[in-house]
Amino acid sequence: MNCCEFREKYSEYADGLLTPPSKAEADVHLALCAACRRFDLALRAGVNMLRELPAVSVSRGFGPALRRRLRDELAVRIPGVIRWSGAVGTLLIVATAGFIGWDWLETRAAHRGAAAEWASSSPGWVAVPPSVANAAAVPDLPTALPRLRIETFHPLNSILVIEPAPPASGQDRVRFDVPAVWGGP
Amino acid sequence: MTLAMKDGLHGPHQTLGAPFAALDDGQVVQAFLEGNDRAFDELVSRYQVRLLNFVYRTVGDRERAEDLVQEVFIRIYRHLHRFDQTKKFSTWAYTIASNLAKNELRNRSRNPLVLFQTIKRHWEADHRPLQFEDSSSRPDDLFRKRHLRELVEQSVSQLPEHHRVVFVLRELEGKTYEEIAEITGCNLGTVKSRLNRARNNFAAIIQPHLD
pLDDT tens digits for B188-205? Predict the structure, then answer.
C-alpha cells in the first residue's frame, strides 16, 4: 500500500471498517510512512480538540421564543379547520341572508309598486279586461278593499275606479297588488 | 396549548417531563401523537442542545443556529403526525436540521450582507479579551490552547458544505455511515467518499499548526 492508497482508505481504516487483510496492509504502511503517521496524528489530535470544545447551550431566550413560535403555529394550524368550516358557514349564512333579503326586497318593491300605483291612481283608474263586469269578478281582489267599484264599461276595457279616499288601513293599500293580467292604463 | 407548553421547555418542564424520562424517543413521539403535548417538551429537552451544536458547527453562527433549531422544532411539531415511526426519531430530527443548515449556507453564499455579518461577528469574537479559564496554566499555554481551538473551528468552517455536514455528523455527533446516508439523503458510497475527503482536508489544514 502506498500513501495515495492509504489516504483513500483512511476513513474506513480510522473507523475500523476495513477487511482484516486491508487493515493489516494499512497498519504496515502507517508503521513505515512518517508522513502518513503525521497525517493520522494530526487528524486524531484535531478531532479530539474539536470534541473538547465547550458545547454551546441554548440561550435563555430560546425556550420563550420557541413557545411563542409554537403558539403561532397552533393558531395557524388547529383553528385552520375551524376557520375553514367557519368560512363555509359564514358563506352559507351570507347566501341565505342574501336570498331572504333579495326575496324581501322584491316583495317590498312589488308592494311599493302596488302602493305607488294605488297612490298614482287615487282617485284614478286601471284598465281591466272586458270580462271584468264587477268588483266581485276581479281576480285576487282584496276583500279589504270594498271601495273598488266598476265605474264604466267599454267594449274593450272596463274602467276600475278607485275611490278618492284610500282605505283606512295602510296595510290594505300595500296588499293591493294590481294583477298583471289587468294590464296598465 | 397545554400547561406544559405554557411552563415547559425550561425550568418547570423538568418536573413535568419526568414521567417521560424512562421512555425512548419512539414512545415519547407516540405519547405526543396521542394528544399529550407535554411529550413535545420532552423531545425539545432531549434534542435542543444536540441539534444546536450540530447546526452551530455546520453554520458557524450561534444566534442563527438557535433560530434554525427553533425552526427544526416547529417543523417537527408540524409534521410529526407524518413521521414514519419505524424509523429513528433522532435521524429524522437531524435530517431536518441538516437540510436547514445546508439551505442557510447556500443562502449565505448568495447573500453578501449575511456573509459580512457572520464575518463581523467572528471578528468581534476574535477581539474579546483573553479569558483565563484555567488559572493553573501559564498564559502563553492558554493562548496557544485558545489559538488551536479557534484554528480547529476555522478548519471545520473551511470545509465545503457537503463535506462539513458529513464530517460533523461523524466526528461530533457519532452517527454511523448508514445514519449519515439517511440524514443527508446520499448513498453509502457517497458518504464514505465525502467523509474521507473531509478528513483529508481537515488534516491538511490543521497539520501545519500541530507539527
Answer: 999 999 999 999 999 988
Q: Check if A56 contacts B (Cβ < 8 Å).
A: yes
Contact (CB<8Å) B200/A10: yes
Please report which confidence band the pLDDT of residue A107 belongs to, taking 50, 70 and 90 as the band edges: low
Kindly report whether the global pTM for this prediction surpasses the value 0.80: no
Exposure on the CB side of residue B205, measured as CA atoms within 13 A? 19
Given the DSSP bridges, would you call strands A158-161 and A125-128 parallel, antiparallel or unpaired?
Answer: antiparallel
Identify the helix (H) or strand (E) that includes residue B125. helix B112-126
Give me the interface pTM, i.e. the ipTM.
Answer: 0.72
In the numeric block, which cell numbers belong to residue A181? Answer: 293580467
Mean pLDDT computed over every residue of chain A: 67
Which chain B residues are closer than 8 Å to A56 by Cβ? 49, 52-53, 56, 62, 65
Strand, coil or helix: A150: strand
| Longest CA span, chain A | 136
Q: Among all residues of chain A, which has the CA nearest to that of B204?
A: A39
Flag if B49 and A7 touch (Cβ within 8 Å). no
Sign of the Cα torsion A137, A139, A143, A149 reads: negative
Nearest CA in chain B to A76: B78
For residue B82, the 8-state DSSP code is G
What residues of chain B lie within 8 A of the CB of A51, using their CB?
A: 171-172
Dihedral of CA atoms A89, A95, A98, A104 in degrees, nearest 10, equals -100
- In B, which residues are within 8 Å of A15 by CB distance? 170, 177
Quote the radius of gyration of chain B (alpha carbons, Å).
19
Distance of CA B148 to the CA centre of its chain: 21
Partner residue opposite A49 with nearest CB, options B52, B149, B200: B149
Q: Which residues of B touch A7 (CB under 8 A)?
A: 196, 200
Cis bond upstream, residue A123 (ω within 30): yes
Length of chain A: 185
